[in-house]
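Dear colleague,

Thank you for sharing your sequence with our group. We've completed the structure prediction you requested, and as agreed, I am returning the results in plain text so they can be pasted directly into your records. Please verify that the sequence below matches your submission; if there's any discrepancy, let me know and we will rerun it promptly.
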Amino acid sequence: MTFLQSVLLGLFQGVAEFLPISSSGHLLILKNLMDLQDVPLSYDIMLHVATLIVVVGIYHKKILVLFRSLFRFLLRKNDESDKKNLGMIAAILVATAITGCAGFLLQDLLPENPLIVSCLFLVTGLILTASKAAELFWKKHPDHPVQSFDLKSGLITGITTGIAQSIGVLPGISRSGITVSAALLINTDKKDAGDISFLISVPAILGAMLLDIGELDSLFAAVSPSVLFAGMASAMIAGAAALLLLLKLIRSGKFYYFSIYLIPAGIAGIVYFA
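Please find the predicted structure tokens below.
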């Protein structure tokens, strides 16, 4: 792998990790087009770590607030102001548990090849379209309460987004796309849907990194440290811009716009790789 190839892969990882277009699917197709199929999976994990740093950086205040509410709860000093935070913590814990169990079973369910990724691009596009349909449905039924992140709704959101994140391990299914869509389908506030999607990604990426940490020797045997760090740096820069853009689009109700790209991309991939 060359320096330029790593930078290019990092840019696509940073953009596709947050925009709902599937980073793993785009990396797989790019590796295939650049004849880099022998690059170990641990390289992809390290690019995910780079985008994890972006999430922590942008959400650091929210993460600190969640930990504060958790400590207050453990010390039995929590009050009404901690209610939403504790509900969100419950959602994160439940989603993480489901992802750890179901994601492990699903990750090898389908072989990783560009044709299957192209088919799943279509699925992701349809999921994004469904999220807009759900938004319009809930607008017509204002009597249905918006998920408020108390303990009960936090558990419901955790189960829903946890199952969605598990399916998101399939290359071609966007993790952010399916988790935000799942939250919107159960009438979660748009801002909260974006927040919970990226907060539950933190333990998921950390878990994947820990499982793969023993393969770092093989990674550095295939990719030099300078080339790896160039890819991680480009992923962080592109990721920060993409995450800020996506949060704005989610809150403005334009999240589904990415289906306009994914559906034609999926069809073009099916035609090209079939």
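Summary note from our side: The longest helix spans residues 114-140.

Kind regards,
the structure core
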